[in-house]
Amino acid sequence: MRIAVAGATGNIGALTVAALERNGHDVVRISRSLGVDLSTGDALEQALVGVDAVVDVTNAPAAGHAETVAYFGTTTRNLLAAGERAGVRHHVLLSIVGIDRVEGTAHYAGKREQERLVAAGPLPWTIVPTTQFHDFAAMVAGWTERDSVATIAPLLVQPIAPEDVADILAEIAAGEPQGHHADVAGPEPQDLVDMARRTNESRGHTVKLVPTWSANLGPEMAGTVLLPAEGARIAPTTFDEWLAGQR
């Protein structure tokens, strides 16, 4: 199949491209750095000529609530409209487990807008909600690190390996549209603070972690809010296995 990946130069995008190519597909890379701009639609229609399926793993720049919703709304509308004109038969959206249970986060609001547009849009679709990635904890700590001290929310998550996400997206894109896919998660729950500590240790990075809630990751995410629902699809790679590859 000819499959386009929107956000192809990002972490998950690059892994998804690689997974699709391993499976023998012809992959079209969509990214602003490659000359295709989802915000304006520039070169998008040409990129989708002959494409059977689109996988959207795009991210939004850090911004406020309204700006994030507007960004995701614009890029998703452009991608769906161009896909309809090109005759795309399957639109796959990577989303996040629990976004319907968390109101205050700008990124989650943007993802909800994406889901709404895809579900109401012109193309057959599959929305794939996944839990946080294995590298999420260290990334979050990095947002606030100053002078070897970082704050991090004490979240309970069930993280998944980025490579597993890419493999699942590649499999789904090559299949029939499913609508709302079951939640996708890693094998076991983890404490975000402990994950960050262990990741930094494995990388030889010394930082003092201070557990605290923040504007982006507040108490509304506490408890089981971010865990997958019953009947979730469980990916194979544990956090320990992923961590071993970081050393």
Commentary on this structure:
The chain is an alpha/beta fold. 37% of the residues lie in helices and 18% in strands. The chain is built from 8 helices and 12 strands. The protein has helices at residues 11-22, 44-47, 65-86, 106-120, 136-144, 162-173, 192-202, 239-244, and strands at residues 2-6, 26-30, 53-56, 90-96, 125-130, 149-152, 156-157, 179-180, 184-185, 190-191, 208-211, 233-234. The strands form 4 sheets. It has a 6-stranded parallel β-sheet, with helices on both faces. It has a two-stranded parallel ribbon with strand order 6-11. The protein has a two-stranded antiparallel ribbon with strand order 7-10. Strand 1, helix 1 (11-22) and strand 2 form a beta-alpha-beta unit. Helix 1 (11-22) packs across helix 6 (162-173) and helix 5 (136-144) packs across helix 7 (192-202). The longest helix is centred in the N-terminal third of the chain and has 22 residues, at 65-86. The protein is globular.
Short description:
The chain is an alpha/beta fold.
Topology:
Layout: E1 2-6, H1 11-22, E2 26-30, H2 44-47, E3 53-56, H3 65-86, E4 90-96, H4 106-120, E5 125-130, H5 136-144, E6 149-152, E7 156-157, H6 162-173, E8 179-180, E9 184-185, E10 190-191, H7 192-202, E11 208-211, E12 233-234, H8 239-244
Parallel strand pairs: 1-2, 1-3, 3-4, 4-5, 5-8, 6-11, 9-12
Antiparallel strand pairs: 7-10
Helix pairs in contact: 1-6, 3-4, 5-7
